[in-house]
Amino acid sequence: MKNAQGRKSVANGFDFSHGLEGLDADEAAVVRRRQKVLGTMGPLFYNRPLHVISGSGVHLRGADGADYLDCYNNVACVGHSNPHVRQAVADQLGRQNTHSRYLQDEVLDYAERLLATFPGAIDHVAFTNSGSESNDLALRMARVATGHMGVVVTQGAYHGITSLVSSVSPSFGTGLPLAPFLATVRVDDALHDADGLGDGTGDGADGAAASDAVWAVLGPRFNQAFDALEHGGYGVSCVLIDEVMSSDGILPGARGWIARLADAVHARGGLLISDEVQAGFGRMGGVMWGFQRHGAEADIVTMGKPMGNGIPVGGVAYRHPIGDAFAACTRYFNTFGGNPVSMRAAGAVLDEIERLGLVAHARDMGDRLARDLSEILEGHERFGGLRHAGLFLGIDVTDGADDGGAAQPDGAAARAIVNALRDDEHVLISSAGPGDAVLKVRPPLVFDDSDADRLLEAVRHICERGLFDR
Amino acid sequence: MKNAQGRKSVANGFDFSHGLEGLDADEAAVVRRRQKVLGTMGPLFYNRPLHVISGSGVHLRGADGADYLDCYNNVACVGHSNPHVRQAVADQLGRQNTHSRYLQDEVLDYAERLLATFPGAIDHVAFTNSGSESNDLALRMARVATGHMGVVVTQGAYHGITSLVSSVSPSFGTGLPLAPFLATVRVDDALHDADGLGDGTGDGADGAAASDAVWAVLGPRFNQAFDALEHGGYGVSCVLIDEVMSSDGILPGARGWIARLADAVHARGGLLISDEVQAGFGRMGGVMWGFQRHGAEADIVTMGKPMGNGIPVGGVAYRHPIGDAFAACTRYFNTFGGNPVSMRAAGAVLDEIERLGLVAHARDMGDRLARDLSEILEGHERFGGLRHAGLFLGIDVTDGADDGGAAQPDGAAARAIVNALRDDEHVLISSAGPGDAVLKVRPPLVFDDSDADRLLEAVRHICERGLFDR
């Protein structure tokens, strides 16, 4: 039933078993204090965990007094300590914050505004407190609406931490069993170079060709997964897909193929659940939602992380017949779901996204970073390529084998780069993907040109020190 | 797989199928607006849903301009719009609100303070965003730590809304299947009169006798449930118990029997999970946690609702070997879990509980309400008895049959009382238990003597109008 060997550690995690020798006195003291009350269940980032004291915009202040450039955090999408979000929350906390079994304006104001960002078929929404609760509810709704159990995800997928959702998240490893009604599909090989380097969008003339090429490989695999679930007696309830495929290695390429996937799952009587917990709210650049990059028709859309800029809130938007089917069989009431404070925080995030034009900005700034980072890294032996959509970038770190085609992902080298950036450049990124060998660069959306200059300068330093070479 | 007939509606729910004729223009307009975006998935309270505009202390202001006395909401435990909680949240939103993979003082300050309220064996805590996430995690931890799957709950239990937790919550009805590894135990008959009327604590000389009597009935039932799970091949992972048994009919009686239950489940190699989402944080009066009323040794304690006075936050406190076993098999990281804003809100709640002496106040005010309500209701035909622990009171409404012993629970009569209090007295309560025939009175803990006077006066009016008589 369980298997300690199969446990997969968090990417870029602090290794508690190595002791605290490398840490300064403050860091060691706080880690010790933490172990006493949080124990072994909570992971920490970096070889030297960062003690965060305050934040503003894309900057975090450490207990060491240093200013860290945040190129990692997607929750604080409109910036750390955003004053407009703060004001909205403080204002609502002075009014009322009861639950949705009373009539309230706040949840309706936000629901109407949120739904206006979706294509018309997605016409209803339920609110939760996290991306995990959202995916859990979406899977339950798909099960009831289709009458089937089977779930298809990508081979390295992460969808959250409830019992059900973690059982369809292979990225946890095999320490606990995956769901028997789960089928997984490998996508990283097909999507790794689907768009060439430095662009990642599959736009333009090459877009359709790239999408065709990807689907020629992935179409048969997904259909095989559907067959397996049908033969197993589970049927096909849904494909649940992270639109940026972060834990698979950041694979946003080949714009269009998700539309083919939607058609394929619909042909089996299943639903497409678009997991926008990471991809949504403009992160992908130029579009509010990841599935829109593909012109795909999602049936259910799940939301979380950036939705309230850190105030816990999540959501499940859906075509209303799906919710009607669910409501006919069971009731759904989430005590904190849709509470006025979370709704006001989420509304303030939409205000800021609109006021600052962050959807277009994510596209433009993402393109700049992709171009400039590629230019700096090009020619370095360990640079294996760069993919991105908007402000979600993945940089492959390899062993730099002489024969470029044989170069293998190198998680240790990626880890060295991530930690050198943290320790010596005060720049925060992390890693993802198979072997944790893909650098994950995913700053708050308010990242500006001077922030980009600082990131690029830091990467230049890292290159000068030879960390991108063998 | 699903069965629309088995769906159990929410207690005191608005019936959408009856149309909007009885509502005033504002109420009807907001219900219509709500149906367009939230659809059929979200329940509403009362025959005339209440449109809430603002709140303060134990008072909610409706869109009709009326002041409603809140005798129902346990989330706003230290009062609606509590200024100290508001200040703490606003302050932290101006500092930072990142996640627990960085070192942060806020989560440690709160964790240390929270754990100090537990007996020493409960020495670690993980943070979540809701009671549902807490119970979901607790069940997973118990499964890994014991190597068993089987779960035992009470026959009318409600433990939350994730897929796993709802599958061990019989109060949803049979519209969706319950877990195959679940065994349920009927408790309402044994606990209904375990303490006599008006007290409900089982204190003093009668306490031990009441506890013995309850366990003489329930002990064999729980052991039968354990046997069934063992024979089914699931083994006994845990008993998950709501310490006030709200959805079973508000059954806090016979102080002490939960200690026997803990011994019994331990003898099978299983754990006692104390669901304190409703009972915790002083609600039971005189003790911080419900299991402490029984002198029981809980292995895992789950928290939610009142923890942050409405800011989403939950927790799972546990004996550390349980967490170590879990962490050896899988990792747990909850993006919003333990975020500094939620931690500051939760800390401010503890401040207020201490500053205002709310644990003792819940006992004293609960005893006063129990005594005075019993005095008013005594002799009325439909009054079937009153149980309480602290500020969680249940009042049985019956059909008032001549032969007192044959009086049956009367949900329709309870519904009439709940709605008369809302419409005519502007007093908010709800109902619970089998047939929704138990009035649920559970005000914010800051409920004071003048609030009690107003509630009692309202109940007198209801009695004068004959709603407690046939």
TrEMBL record, chains A, B:
<dbReference type="InterPro" id="IPR015421">
    <property type="entry name" value="PyrdxlP-dep_Trfase_major"/>
</dbReference>
<keyword id="KW-0032">Aminotransferase</keyword>
<dbReference type="InterPro" id="IPR049704">
    <property type="entry name" value="Aminotrans_3_PPA_site"/>
</dbReference>
<protein>
    <submittedName>
        <fullName>4-aminobutyrate aminotransferase</fullName>
    </submittedName>
</protein>
<keyword id="KW-0808">Transferase</keyword>
<dbReference type="InterPro" id="IPR015422">
    <property type="entry name" value="PyrdxlP-dep_Trfase_small"/>
</dbReference>
<dbReference type="InterPro" id="IPR005814">
    <property type="entry name" value="Aminotrans_3"/>
</dbReference>
<dbReference type="GO" id="GO:0008483">
    <property type="term" value="F:transaminase activity"/>
</dbReference>
<keyword id="KW-0663">Pyridoxal phosphate</keyword>
<comment type="similarity">
    <text>Belongs to the class-III pyridoxal-phosphate-dependent aminotransferase family.</text>
</comment>
<dbReference type="Pfam" id="PF00202">
    <property type="entry name" value="Aminotran_3"/>
</dbReference>
<dbReference type="GO" id="GO:0030170">
    <property type="term" value="F:pyridoxal phosphate binding"/>
</dbReference>
<dbReference type="InterPro" id="IPR015424">
    <property type="entry name" value="PyrdxlP-dep_Trfase"/>
</dbReference>
